[in-house]
Design goal:
Elements: E1 2-3, E2 5-8, H1 12-23, E3 28-31, H2 39-42, E4 48-49, E5 58-59, H3 60-73, E6 77-79, E7 84-89, E8 94-98, E9 102-105, E10 108-110, E11 116-119, H4 127-130, E12 135-136, E13 150-153, H5 157-167, E14 172-175, H6 185-192, E15 197-199, E16 202-209, E17 213-220, E18 223-228, E19 231-234, E20 238-241, H7 244-247, E21 258-259, E22 271-273, E23 278-279, H8 287-306
Parallel strand pairs: 1-9, 2-3, 2-10, 3-6, 10-22, 12-19, 13-14, 13-19, 14-15, 21-23
Antiparallel strand pairs: 4-5, 7-8, 8-9, 11-20, 16-17, 17-18
Helix pairs in contact: 1-3, 1-8, 5-6
């Protein structure tokens, strides 16, 4: 079988691309190296998302589940845990070679987000020792936090939103190494109106405890002190790996992201891209941005494959 489009990546951008492709009756395969959902399920599944149109607030995991269900119900073939190794040129088609086989496609859309990723670590004494023994990189479900002293590290939207979730059930403190947060003003305002304690201009000296985490030693403006903690959630960013792109023959920016035209086309004929993996002047990395780019990429793919009279 030769698919009209193969989408690489099953985060919000990839799933949206699948939904739009099937609305145009394009045969569609979505390949995901890990689990469906991308960062929504891998990094912050419990986080509430407040700026996705149509929802006052939606849990990241539930948004992913809805997109997955819609793409599947519309007829997308979706394969998890199948890594794309190469994209070769065939006879008037593209050959997508994965860890499990080879697929034929008339077009391809790259929607791998930040590629393979893992949370950044602080590399402080005690961090390795207490990982999964109090130190977490993803916020546990609220039920696990009841009665625990939670300390959140980070200054972005995700860190604040996770702290607000924890604050709804338990004693919560957020620690940031800078004097002000980089998060959206609305999130900072919610934080200021909550019961969350803030410790600014502070760096971690060590994580402490016996068998499990018991406290965190901080240095704030040269004043060293201990902060009691049962759970420490580190949310200071991710390390991403986009080296696969170099094997796919796609033109990249100096930052290692995909260079696209206004229609989301790459330098390779029939290959388009969308989402966090794409870079251009003024790019604003948001879920809604990835979804909008996905719609554009599919229209471009449709024109390339079907060659409608109006294109």
């Amino acid at each position: 079988m030769c698919y009209d489009v193969i989408i690489i990546g099953a985060g919000p951008g990839g799933l949206t691309a699948g939904i739009y492709a099937r609305s145009k009756m394009m045969s569609t395969l979505i390949l995901e190296a890990g689990r469906v959902g991308g960062q929504l399920t891998s990094l912050y599944p419990e986080k509430g998302i407040h700026n996705y149109p149509g929802f006052e607030t939606v849990q990241a995991r539930k948004l992913s589940d809805r997109l997955y269900a819609q793409a599947e119900s519309m007829g997308c073939d979706i394969h998890e845990h199948e890594k794309v190794m190469k994209i070769d040129d065939g006879d008037e088609e593209l050959l997508v070679i994965t860890s499990k086989g080879t697929y034929h496609a008339r077009s391809v859309i790259v929607a791998i987000g930040m590629g393979s990723f893992r949370p950044k670590k602080m590399d402080c004494p005690g961090e390795e020792e207490f990982t999964d023994k109090g130190i977490r990189y993803i916020l546990p479900v609220k039920e696990e936090l009841v009665g625990q002293k939670v300390v959140m590290f980070g200054g972005g939207n995700s860190a604040i939103e996770m702290a607000l979730i924890a604050d709804s059930v338990t004693d919560t403190t957020i620690v940031h190494r800078r004097p002000e947060f980089r998060a959206d003003e609305a999130n900072v305002d919610d934080l200021n109106n909550s019961n969350i304690k803030t410790v600014m201009n502070a760096n971690v000296v060590s994580f402490n405890g016996k068998e499990y985490l018991e406290s965190v030693t901080l240095n704030q403006n040269d004043k060293v002190f201990d902060l009691p903690a049962d759970v420490a959630v580190i949310n200071i960013g991710i390390n991403s790996d986009l080296t696969d792109l170099k094997n796919w023959g796609i033109d990249l920016t100096p930052e290692g992201l995909v260079r696209v035209n206004f229609d989301m086309a790459t330098n390779r004929n029939g290959i388009f891209a969308c989402g966090d993996v794409v870079d251009y002047p003024g790019k604003y990395k948001q879920i809604i941005t990835a979804c909008g780019e996905a719609a554009t990429a599919i229209v471009s793919s449709y024109k390339f494959v079907k060659k409608p009279y109006w294109a």
